[in-house]
Amino acid sequence: MTQLFIKNAYLITMNEKREVYENGSILIEDNKIKAVGHFDESIVNNDAETYDAKGKILMPGFVNTHVHLSQQLGRGIADDVDLLTWLRDRVWPYESSFDYNDSLISSTACCIELIRSGVTTFLESGGQYVDAMVEAVDKTGIRACLAKSVMDQGEGLPKAWQKTCEEELNTQIDLFEKFNNMSNERVKIWFALRTIFNNSDELIVKTKELADKYNTGIHMHIAEIADEVDFAKQRQGLTTVEHLNKLGVLGSNLLAVHTVWLTTREIDLFRLNNVKVSHNPAAAMKVVLGFASIPEMLEKGIPVSIGTDGAPSNNRMDMMRDMYLTSLIHKGRTLNPTVVNAERILEMATINGAKCALLDNEIGSLEVGKKADMVILNPNTVHCLPMHNPIGNIVYAMSSENVDSTICDGKWLMKEKEILVLDEKELLEKVVHQAEQIRNKANINLTSNFTIIK
């Protein structure tokens, strides 16, 4: 039994009462929280590790609900293009050229960037080498819901990805039975339907049946672009969400990502079926080009969380930046400065993210009995001080530069800016080398409007 005692912090619990302690402490025992707030320190063992967080902020780790691990090495290969060009001419050729080692390096690098931005849990929307993703998560100590991106139809699919419905279903079952609850239960295996462009009705329905059977989640891009909604109407006479509702897929274990092109009725369908939502503000403005009705969803009680999307569409896996963007764009869209306030943003990034991960009984708030997943923020930077309003400053003034330490499952992943789980310098050297190899293998040639002189 090991203990970690963190004291003298500005402690944001995100519990049901949203209690904040101006000078609070937390006691971690093994991988769980034993005490939080103000408590009798006699329960702290003599051999406990003690960390003085005076002047710092302690809060639940962020939950990033939409990530593409396999796209990390593709940062910058698909800037300033429309989504279908982004997908079919850049990202698909890039990802389909991967082997296991490519995926491992990409996944590991993504996990480290997430750790550096205070993320302790993320939801992968589906790659091809799930075993490499599991290895990366195990090595870096982070918590994740991983999935294979399943596709059984669609224009432009790379040959390596052309699979039958039965093949994709069997693969999902094999992955779940092999990897679910690995790494001290930090790994959860989900199912991931790519898009309605790439999934037959049979694959959609049977994946939902499997998710229900195995008591796990479904990760799907939904109502991402206007062309997707038009495609669904032409194929079935219904929008994406209306069609999924007809198929019986809408439910509490469905995470709908992007959801930019929803009608009021579709938002109500989400509410009635307890569908979860991942809002990706940077990707929405850079590639998807639209503004999801986030204030309206929150008002109706829909669990809305925040995701960064992948490196070619954001291009930073920085939750704190996306929290900031979320806080701003909906004020501008609604012309209402009071919507999606700082407190609501912290809910979206923590407890709502935990709900979307189907893990809110285990993470998302600092409460006795929950897993010890948390982040320490250091506000002592010129762009953050003074701290008249600490909650507001987290959202409106801080950045990932202020992430001081990250703890997951009771272990330090990063302590005072130093990554402890691996040799970061060695990883960065691999990233640079491997990214160039993959781009050449995928025959992706980038041009510039500037004159490049070699």
Defining traits:
454 residues, alpha/beta, nine-stranded mixed sheet, six-stranded parallel sheet
**Regions with little confidence, pLDDT below 50 for 5+ residues:** none
Number-wise, the strands total: 19
For the largest beta-sheet, the strand count, sense and barrel status come to:
9 strands, mixed
Our Rg estimate from Cα atoms comes to 21 Å
Global geometry: globular
**Structural class of the secondary structure composition?**
alpha/beta
Task: Give an overview in words.
By secondary structure, the protein is an alpha/beta fold. The chain has 17 helices and 19 strands. The strands form 3 sheets. Strands 1, 2, 3, 4, 5, 16, 17, 18 and 19 form a 9-stranded mixed sheet that branches. A 6-stranded parallel sheet has the order 9-11-12-13-14-15. Helix 9 links the parallel strand 13 (254-258) and strand 14. Helix 2 packs parallel to helix 3, helix 2 packs across helix 17 and helix 4 runs parallel beside helix 6. The radius of gyration is 21 Å and the shape is globular. The mean pLDDT is 94.
Summary, kept brief:
By secondary structure, the protein is α/β, with parallel strands linked by helices. The protein has helices at 83-96, 100-116, 130-140, 165-179, 182-185, 201-214, 226-236, 240-247, 264-273, 281-288, 294-299, 311-314, 319-334, 342-349, 351-356, 390-396, 424-441; strands spanning 3-12, 20-29, 32-37, 49-52, 57-60, 62-67, 119-124, 143-146, 149-150, 187-189, 191-193, 218-222, 254-258, 276-279, 304-306, 374-377, 403-408, 411-415, 418-419.
